[in-house]
Amino acid sequence: MKKLIPLCSLLLFIGCSDEDLYVSPDGDMPQAVMIIEEETETPSSSDDIFMVVEEQPSFPGGMEEWNKFLLTNLQYPEQAKTKGVEGRVFLTFVVQKDGELKDLQLIRGIGGGCDEEALRVLMESPNWEPGKQRGREVATRMQVAITFKLDGTKQLPTSPTRVIIETPDTEIESQN
Question: What per-residue confidence (pLDDT) applies to 167?
């Protein structure tokens, strides 16, 4: 029995973190104490930007309208056509509570004027539907990728080109 008490004390000591172990001042046997911290919901400030929300921001009319907007407004840059520049341009931006786009940034570009064109079109887009968290509209950071692709390996400026717009669910093409 005397060997069992130190063994239990040792197991208790090893199994508990420092915050969970309580030793009385008079040196009695260590006791496990469960510390419960009340989780309080802190109201988010108006400056909080969410990365993940319950309801993602969306272009007015949904992804189909976003694709139409890109097809109508996005132009393949002449410099990129003559140099044969193709690839994906990655952009990030914040959709504010009122749907306005702010803090537009290029994450990774491909050059040849494609980066500037992708940013230009995104800046010209109308206000989006804001993201929602717990039923409230919140500022949300978004990322998009726009793919620029030529029909051949290298095109003359007068040759038709196509812009491929990739979204997670669909891929559409436009002849320019």
Answer: 47
